[in-house]
């Protein structure tokens, strides 16, 4: 449904032709050869740090930003080749919501939702027939005559969602749609988006910097870093086995499983006299319910001192995480790590600590 093929976007500080040819030292390469494929009916998340290029990417889908190179295809139509008139028509099939809602403050709730229909030249009775059910769907039928200033953040986003759906789009783009909302309102908006996806079959592409959003509603996720898409995975896989260091950092921040500060201060990069490895273990699937830690003691002669542990449920997959110190000789701890890896645990050595006992 949405295909980005080698999309790059460079912002030039100076629009002169000579500078555009590559001499502009202040040019920002916000997207670098990004390729992405979102099938019909999917909810796809793009996660990344601030400045990574998320907004640029999502705005390239409906050409609010025109890519510098590459192609964007939505529902079989190559957006990057359309004339302005064709692009306007194509945009009716792509709804968009924003972090700060972008409602017109001088229009009522009803009139905000009606706006895209009016712009399409629809008659009043057709507008009425479309807007009332939309307001019912987002739970705001009783607020039709109110103005945005009279609404909460969550209610404003509901109006924005109804407005985005007014032209019966097949794709909904969500630009940090819940970032300005508290956690409870965030989950109610995410639930609404999930319902819209299920009931109307609308394909959703969302950008976020929050793992919770990805965990709650996405089927698949891409990780963006410095303008490049560096991971693309099923959500369950991303949460159980991120392939990049940045992916692991997002996961660790989300799970808040970092070694205690006191331990970090004592961690050494390399093993030394009387040191023991401190490891972060990630396990999923069968490994969660297997008593591997007690087997380490029996089979490798290694004691395990557990410093932190957590079990999370992510879209019907169970994920276990643990930070532990492995106590034994160098040969024993090596054997223990190999044993864990052979049972599909991911083992990351965080460093080494000295023990004097
Ligand atoms: N109109 C613009 N002109 C020049 N540079 C821009 C423009 N828009 C974005 N950038 C730059 O492009 C890079 C990517 O910005 P973008 O807004 O896409 O990132 P983001 O991941 O959405 O960040 P955030 O989460 O902070 O909104 C940044 O370095 C940003 O400063």
Automatic annotation (TrEMBL):
Pfam family, one: ABC_tran
Domain of life (superkingdom): Bacteria
Listed Gene3D superfamilies: 3.30.70.260, P-loop containing nucleotide triphosphate hydrolases (3.40.50.300)
Protein name, per record: Methionine ABC transporter ATP-binding protein
Domain ABC transporter, first and last residues per copy: 2-251
Membrane topology: Peripheral membrane protein
MF-aspect GO terms: ATP binding
Location(s), subcellular: Cell inner membrane
Family matches, as InterPro entries: AAA+_ATPase, ABC_transporter-like_ATP-bd, ABC_transporter-like_CS, ACT-like_dom_sf, MetN_ABC, MetN_ABC_transporter-like, NIL_domain, P-loop_NTPase
CDD domains per UniProt: ABC_MetN_methionine_transporter (cd03258)
Swiss-Prot/TrEMBL keywords: Amino-acid transport, ATP-binding, Cell membrane, Membrane, Nucleotide-binding, Translocase, Transport
